[in-house]
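hey so u asked for the seq, here:
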Amino acid sequence: MKSEVYINDEFGPRYVVHVRDPKLGMEGVLVIDNTNLGPGKGGIRMTPNVTEEEVRRLARGMTLKNALAGIPFGGAKAGIVMPVEVSRDKAMKKKFVQSFARLLKPLLINGYIAGPDVNSGETEMRWFADAAGDWRSATGKPSGYTKKGAKKGKWRGLPHELGSTGFGVAHATAIAAELKGIPIKGAVVAIEGFGNVGTFAMKFLIEMGAKVVAIADSRMTAYLPSGLDHKKMMAVKKKTSSVANYPGAKALPHDDVFGLPVDILIPAAVTDVIHEGNKDSIQAKIIVEAANIPMRESVEKYLHNKGILIVPDFVANAGGVISSYAEYIGASPEYMFKIVKKKVSDATRAVISAALKGRRNPREVAVEIAKKKVAAAGK
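ran it, structure tokens below
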């Protein structure tokens, strides 16, 4: 878990904790970046090559995201080195997750609250909370999770499988398009990533009237200029395991999704997918960062200078952590969707309006707003 770039400044990180279970061979890292606004909140990334550097970058993003969203959480992130063979073995994966939870127990709730991320969802959050012995130690749990002792009308689980992040991404996209002068109804969209975030972003954008012409999964891209249907695409993916089998769509290599002639490009999968090698192929007028850190800041600045409007990740994908807050206070799914729409829309409008007015990079504007909130809380 070697790190290459360290973030060390007046905001954090407060804690960088490496844990290891010699019996299982499990290794993990927790970075609690800042707790001025509340306990550190962020998901657990479970991939074979997760690094401390990656987790540090993600933790800082959570500090900014939670501050900008106006919820009482600090920023944190965690990672478990999850070999492919362990990820495919449910029993072994459970042992890894629960070992990680037990080793972090002294820091949980007051210092860190877990949540879903890459390769982790409601099942993994249930395992984590069970091992920690407290339902408050993780959000994103199944909707029926431990209602024992709950107050009447209170919920104990709001899984990300409800689509909160993709719902927020869709609303961020609509606001950015409006401010850029592109009506969302009829806007041409390409989405890279067809996991939880990408599938729901597609669903809600189509409901808004957008035309999603391309979807990429981890291997291929399906491209249909006349527009893809959400339900049909879900069925194709489930039945064949590949979006490329969508009837009538052109099957393209995965990376071709970045260079398609669209109004809006939404990277909704993993880190650093837009890079030096493909940045010049992008034709989109707007990029909405549904994934966490889908490109390095140097690439983002380059594209901004080319005139592409970019909605930063911690603005666009805040729906998931806002849902986590709703779960933490025991709110209903209806209330959760209501506050996700309001908070993501308000934050997107504030950041993009200021960026366009001042001809500034939206990330610089968003970071400035968020840091002011964190600094004020620190005083």
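Residues 147-153 have pLDDT under 50 and may be disordered. The longest helix spans residues 333-358.
lmk if thats what u needed
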